AEC family transporter
Amino acid sequence: MLTFFWILLPIFSIFVVGFISQKILHFDIPNLSKMSIYVLSPFLAFKTFYSYQISVDYLYYFGYIYLLCFALVLLVSIAAKIFHYDEQTRCGMILGSCFMNNGNYGTPVVLAFFGAAGFDLAIIMLVLQQVVMNTVGTYYAAKGSSRKIIGSSVRHALYQVLKMPTAHGALLGVLFQLLHIPLSESLYRSISMVGDASIVVIMVILGMQLANIRITKIAYGKLSINLTIKMLLSPLIAFFLVEWLPIDHASKQILILLAAMPAAANTTLLAVHFDTKPELVSSATLISTLMSLMTLPIVLLFLGVELPA
């Protein structure tokens, strides 16, 4: 357990930087979130799909991550129906339950326990998760927004999905790779620098948003549903899904481990950007991140992965 804590300490340190800076300097978080979503993330998506060799396994990973997401959306929707939550609350709970933090949290954990080969898969899943969040996540963030435009909320939500550039960056990276379009070393380095910066910026912004949480305003009943779905049911569903995938055993372990990660930091950015229950979403991110210090070692032991000495 102590070894696991030291692995995660650098990650939590970046959250703390954002938390302290927001308490002292009071940044404009919505505009910073917009910068991360519209400027930095597309470069990371392009770099990943341009750099890593495309194979049929991508289809398996893509199908898996969408199936997992929609299974979790279904569970949240059933809970919202049972407890008579309104549409904005349901959408906020989806943002806080259905997307895992397999980027700035999952990738260093996978690297620590599975090495370089596992890290390559974690990076691929990072970008696929970005695509899911910027399609499905954006849809529900816009659908539950308190700032809806006049007209159909579904039409407005779909329009917001089309505006999200991360999926465009990923598609462009695929096309450049398949068409063998070369990039100069200096241009590729510039793209990499901007893309890699997105991970740290997202972590800092998450820390800033956590600084704005009012503990007295946390909806503990809704939050408990979020945490149960994200931290318990998500890895269980992943366990059954990967049994159907024709991939190696280590890859299956990694997919289950990533499904057990806490709520994604990017969902806080979407919640802030669209004003879709940002306190509920950021609370789910904070508490699930803290819980992961206890739950992830259990998942690793269940998978038969030993903690490093």
